[in-house]
Write a structure and sequence with these properties.
Number of strands: 8
Helix content: 25-40%
Order of helices and strands: EHEHHHEHEHEHEHEHE
Largest sheet: 8 strands, parallel
Shape: globular
Radius of gyration: 17 Å
Strand content: 15-25%
Structural class: alpha/beta
Strand order of the largest sheet: 3-2-1-8-7-6-5-4
Distance between the termini: 15 Å
């Protein structure tokens, strides 16, 4: 999965070019993000040091519209790559469901939003959930809440650093996840090279997600 994130900076043409490049590179899927800022955060949340503007303002300025997502889904179909998207609120998920998305990717920051995840699980589509911001007990709780509703879930081992340091990646958690949860396990790789992705596959990861820029 090529993680396009918001690296298009609101440009549909740039997003299309990211789709084209990901397809040419042999990716199976490319994932975007659907942000409705007023649904997911307060306007005055503290600003992190890796941004030049408040996140709320950034998303208002650069988030793709629902029409943009529909156009990207059509373009993905044209070039032969699977369109995926992460919703960051219940309303965003409901809008994506209206578009007919094939699956849902959940970011690790939303892993403990169980009421919203249960609603998404009820859509009956596969769910891929990143775990980078969660402790084991939180993953346990989320899996236990979703599996009775939807058994088509996958968990991604993830380190929520940008970029992630190799010394922090802890790939040994992947086989532990496979044993503990009995679902498809993958790796969301935030390092600046490919080596931890290769190691993750060697340890049994079935999904690799990697950030993409032009």
């Amino acid at each position: 999965i090529a993680e396009a994130c918001d690296n298009h900076f609101g440009s549909l043409d740039t997003a299309r070019e990211m789709v084209r490049r990901a397809s040419l590179a042999g990716c199976d899927a490319i994932k975007f993000q659907h942000h409705l800022p007023y649904e997911e955060m307060l306007p005055d949340v503290p600003m992190s040091s890796n941004f030049d503007m408040p996140l709320f303002e950034f998303l208002q300025r650069y988030a793709l519209s629902l029409d943009d997502h529909a156009a990207l889904m059509d373009y993905c179909a044209d070039v032969g790559i699977q369109y995926l998207c992460t919703p960051f609120s219940r309303k965003a998920a409901e809008e994506l469901e209206g578009l007919g998305v094939a699956a849902y990717k959940i970011g690790s920051g939303e892993l403990t939003d169980i009421p919203t995840l249960q609603i998404i699980a009820g859509f009956g589509k596969p769910m891929i959930l990143s775990t980078g911001m969660a402790e084991v007990e939180e993953i346990d709780e989320t899996v236990a809440a979703i599996l009775p509703i939807n058994t088509e879930i996958a968990l991604l081992h993830c380190v929520s650093e940008y970029p992630a340091r190799h010394s922090d990646v802890n790939l040994g958690f992947i086989p532990l996840m496979k044993e503990r949860y009995g679902v498809v396990i993958g790796h969301s790789d935030h390092t600046p090279d490919i080596w931890t992705a290769l190691g993750a596959v060697a340890l049994g990861a079935n999904i690799i997600e990697k950030h993409l820029t032009l």
